[in-house]
């Protein structure tokens, strides 16, 4: 597989992954806080929760493939900052899959107690996203981009800022239930989710332009 084709495929996968993530959020509404309404909610949205959970599990994998592509193109896989990004990607996947696991546990629970316990674990895991998962992935990735010509440095600086804000909010909301701080975290998470397709589209445009330029040069050489 050529590097150019590999880059294009990884960029398209990242865009698809973000689309999957937004669809999963739309399919998986927040459950009611009243336990008396939870059983009816589970029956009404059971299939939607399962599909949304599947999409939420697949989405970060496609995004991580894009991250790996950036590391490969930047030749950073053996550098410390590249290894830090790989560690962050692993943490990111584990946290996401833990959340999905507890969503599935709540959806398939045979009694209300099990469903409530699973949802409590979901809220606990969501704390990990701002505390460690998001900053551990996007901060070192931003540093990789800053130190390489693969993507514009502005994207790298933006990634570092986003990751730093996540780390700060992780401390700010450490003693606060996630549902109480969801507005601030949701806004920042939306910014991060937009960062990835912007980076993917930028890489895609660069590779397509490079491919067109290479084709034009080949045609000039052939006509000489």
From TrEMBL:
Membrane-spanning parts? 5-27, 47-71, 83-106, 126-147, 154-176, 182-205
Does Membrane show up as a keyword for this record? yes
Q: Does the keyword Cell inner membrane apply?
A: no
Q: Which UniProt keywords apply?
A: Membrane, Transmembrane, Transmembrane helix
Q: What is this protein called?
A: DUF4386 domain-containing protein
Q: What is the lineage of its organism?
A: Bacteria, Bacillati, Chloroflexota, Ktedonobacteria, Ktedonobacterales
């Amino acid at each position: 597989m050529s590097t150019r084709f590999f880059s294009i495929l990884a960029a398209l996968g990242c865009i698809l992954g973000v689309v999957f993530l937004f669809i999963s959020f739309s399919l998986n509404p927040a459950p009611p806080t009243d336990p008396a309404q939870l059983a009816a909610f589970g029956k009404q949205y059971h299939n939607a929760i399962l599909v949304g959970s599947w999409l939420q599990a697949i989405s970060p994998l496609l995004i991580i493939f894009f991250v790996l592509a950036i590391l490969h193109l930047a030749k950073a896989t053996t550098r410390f900052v590249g290894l830090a990004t790989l560690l962050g990607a692993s943490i990111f996947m584990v946290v996401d899959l833990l959340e999905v696991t507890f969503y599935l546990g709540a959806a398939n629970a045979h009694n209300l107690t099990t469903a409530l316990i699973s949802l409590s674990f979901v809220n606990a895991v969501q704390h990990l996203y701002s505390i460690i998962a998001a900053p551990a992935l996007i901060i070192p990735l931003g540093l990789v981009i800053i130190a390489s010509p693969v993507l514009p440095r502005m994207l790298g600086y933006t990634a570092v800022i986003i990751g730093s804000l996540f780390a700060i909010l992780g401390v700010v909301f450490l003693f606060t239930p996630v549902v109480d701080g969801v507005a601030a975290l949701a806004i920042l998470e939306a910014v991060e989710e937009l960062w990835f397709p912007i980076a993917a589209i930028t890489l895609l445009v660069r590779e397509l332009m490079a491919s067109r330029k290479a084709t034009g040069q080949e045609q000039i050489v052939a006509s000489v």
